[in-house]
Design a protein that fits this description.
The protein is mostly helical and 428 residues long. The chain is 69% helix and 2% strand. The longest helix has 32 residues.
């Protein structure tokens, strides 16, 4: 029986260039994210920790709109809405005009993302069964910016096929994360504001479908949708991804063919908002979210022996790579998977371990599960940081060992003997 073929190779040249551009921006954002997290940790454990906590707890905003929020909440609910707006644009673009429009190419990273959510959740629940089970989703999210910051140090020569796999896995991971937040972490749902949010969301959709780019029309509608979703009890970041999904990817002049460069409104917005997301929104969120007062050796011991922290660390370091590898292997086992020449399962394993770096969304879910600023929230932050650091170190070793192979593949991907501006491997 002929079995459908699933492609794990490098894809088209247009898509490879686009993904390389995206990853460069996200890598810079990852470095800024790390700086923000380190500053927060040092500040929160310094003699000036009182000023840090006073800053995160400072309230600002119109009370009449129920938006007199702390700066930490503005960062989590407001700035991360920008992050998820860009994620929505990226996800829609991948499946409408990217190489992943082809189900054969999409199947493996999508399955990997699903496995990378299910298994760490199960690991956490096994550790915390009968206890704090509401934190089950904390170790399910991959932080692509943090992961790319690690790659910038140890895996600059990662072949385009693996980069595509990593980016797609992370984007689908973001979609699953926002779905989990919307479904499982909405405590008190107010139906009226949620229904009212459909009005500005619908108006925004109509305008962008008509290719309107006027910020003075679109931004007020986007803010109104965000405000009403926030008032409904659903986490406000859900508005970001819904607004991203509303933006058209293709224009009538650009047919929906895999690998075709579609200069639609989604690409225009992505160019505008990705630097804002990677360079400002996520690093500022890290500054407000990562500051936990450890309390010395005793405080660290207390945090790391908490079953919640153990579940989070094991979920990130063990559950995440096991889930991704198992789902990838099963998908490949029952289809026909193809990798670029020179690549092996150890390379997929390296990316699977790297995907155990959970930061931005993991910290957000931790706050939603246990509240902000309490002892359990502090334990979650320490666990997320510890698990992400361990995953980063293990992935660095695995990828570093294979770096010579990656450099050889990268050199082959750059050969252009006919000098037409397109590397020869994309024309074979």
């Amino acid at each position: 029986m002929h079995r459908r073929r699933i492609d794990l190779s490098r894809g088209s040249w247009a898509e490879a260039r686009r993904i390389a551009d995206v990853l460069r921006k996200e890598t810079i954002g990852g470095i800024l994210l790390l700086i923000g997290a380190v500053v927060a940790l040092i500040w929160a454990n310094s003699p000036w920790s009182g000023q840090y906590h006073a800053l995160t707890g400072y309230r600002i905003g119109p009370a009449a709109l129920h938006l007199d929020l702390t700066l930490a909440t503005w960062a989590a609910d407001g700035l991360l809405a920008i992050f998820f707006f860009v994620a929505g644009l990226e996800l829609k673009r991948e499946f409408v005009a990217g190489d992943l429009r082809d189900p054969r190419r999409a199947a493996v990273p999508v399955a990997a993302a699903v496995g990378g959510v299910i298994v760490p959740a199960v690991v956490y629940l096994v550790v915390n069964w009968g206890g704090a089970v509401k934190g089950w989703a904390i170790p399910t999210a991959t932080d692509i910016a943090f992961a790319l910051a690690v790659l910038a140090v140890v895996g600059r020569s990662l072949p385009s096929g693996l980069r595509t796999f990593l980016l797609t896995l992370a984007v689908v991971d973001d979609l699953l994360a926002i779905t989990i937040i919307a479904v499982f972490y909405t405590a008190d749902l107010s139906v009226l504001p949620l229904l009212a949010a459909l009005l500005p969301l619908g108006a925004f959709t109509v305008l962008v479908q008509r290719r309107v780019r006027s910020w003075w029309l679109l931004l007020p509608l986007a803010f109104a949708a965000w405000t009403l979703v926030h008032a409904s009890g659903v986490h406000a970041t859900v508005a970001g991804i819904l607004l991203g999904f509303a933006v058209p990817v293709l224009t009538p002049a650009h047919p929906a063919s895999p690998g075709h460069s579609a200069h639609g409104l989604a690409e225009h917005f992505e160019h505008r908002f990705r630097p804002l997301s990677a360079g400002f929104a996520v690093p500022v969120f890290a500054l407000f979210a990562a500051g936990v007062t450890i309390g010395g050796v005793d405080g660290l011991r207390s945090a790391l022996t908490d079953p919640v922290a153990i579940g989070v660390i094991l979920g990130l370091v063990v559950g995440k790579p096991v889930g991704i590898l198992a789902a990838t292997w099963l998908t490949a086992r029952f289809t026909r998977a193809r990798m670029d020449a020179g690549l092996a399962w150890i390379d997929v394993a390296g990316l699977a371990v790297l995907s155990g770096i959970g930061f931005t969304v993991s910290l957000l879910i931790g706050e939603l599960a246990f509240g902000f600023g309490n002892e359990r929230d502090g334990h979650v932050k320490i666990a997320v940081l510890t698990g992400s650091l361990v995953a980063a170190l293990i992935a660095a070793v695995v990828l570093r060992v294979r770096n010579r192979v990656y450099r050889r593949i990268q050199q082959a991907e750059q050969v252009d003997q006919d000098r037409d501006g397109i590397p020869d491997v994309y024309q074979s």
